[in-house]
Amino acid sequence: MAKNPEWTIREVMHATGLTSRTLRYYDEIGLLAPSSTGPGGLRHYDEAGLVRLQQILLWRELGVPLAKISRLLTGGTGAVEALMHQRDQLKSELARIAEQLAAVESTIAALGTGEELVPKQMFNGFDHRKYDAEVRERWGDEAADRSNRWWEQLGEGGQEEFRMQLQDLTDAWDAVIASAEAPSSNAAQQVAARHLTFLRAAWQTEELPPEAVAGLARMYAEDPRFAKNYTRVSPSGAEFVRDALLHHLGL
């Protein structure tokens, strides 16, 4: 009988864009264990592991915390049933994107024929107004414009690399939150320092006003849109990140 196929951790990293640290962390919290370990501790994943990882990443894309993903995967729901549920949610997202595409196509057609633009039709499927206005209200037009220019200049490859850095940073927060360390601990403060470095890159500035970072840290805990990024392993994760950043700032 032929042996079931397996893929090395490097192959999985290449296919998914995940880091080795993330995959090892998933193993540590009981979310995804390798199917076998080869010479030198090289991890391998079989078909069942890849299907499970696909489910994990789909849930993450939909904003589900890791702790809840673990419960979903161990709650008796079969892989096919779970994937069907995820498929339905992805179809809803696809419908929203289709609306956006139709709106853009309509604008292109109107501009080509000289027809009058219809604002309501142009922005069908879009919901970004509150974010841009919020950024400008909190940090000003100059900061928003500078960050937007930098993001566009990164290009597709640079933007993907930055997303991976953000994911790695979020995973680092998960690890220190799960370790039961205090926000003021050395481990937490090392991640806080990484977080500030990340913010400097995003804001395109060498100097970060402490009051701006403090406001952002508090927003992590107070705004559910941001809090969900830090509550994947603990309901109080966002408060942990806030306290660690404030401690790092000496506040």
In short:
This protein has 12 helices and 3 strands, in the order βααββαααααααααα.
Explain what the structure shows:
The chain has 251 residues and is mostly helical. The chain folds into 2 domains: 6-76, Orthogonal Bundle (Multidrug-efflux Transporter Regulator, Chain: A, Domain 2); 140-248, Globin-like, CATH 1.10.490. The protein is 70% helix and 4% strand. The chain has helices at 9-16, 20-28, 47-61, 66-73, 79-113, 119-122, 129-139, 141-178, 186-203, 210-222, 224-227, 237-248; strands spanning 6-8, 36-37, 43-46. A 3-stranded antiparallel sheet has the order 1-3-2. A hairpin with a 5-residue loop joins strand 2 (36-37) and strand 3. Helix 7 (129-139) packs across helix 8 (141-178) and helix 8 runs antiparallel to helix 9.
Count of alpha and pi helical runs: 12
Give the C-alpha Rg.
Answer: 21 Å
Overall, the morphology is globular
* Order of strands, widest sheet: 1-3-2
What structural class do you assign from the helix and strand content?
mainly alpha
The CATH architecture classification of the largest domain is Orthogonal Bundle
CATH class call of the largest domain: Mainly Alpha
How much β-strand is present in the residues?
A: under 5%
Mean pLDDT: 78
Could you estimate the helical fraction of the residues in percent? 55-70%
Q: For the record, give the distance between the C-alpha atoms at the N and C termini, rounded to a whole number.
A: 64 Å
Strand segment tally? 3
Number of domains: 2
Query: CATH homologous superfamily of the largest domain - what is it?
Result: Antibiotic binding domain of TipA-like multidrug resistance regulators
Residue stretches low in confidence (pLDDT < 50, at least 5 long) are none
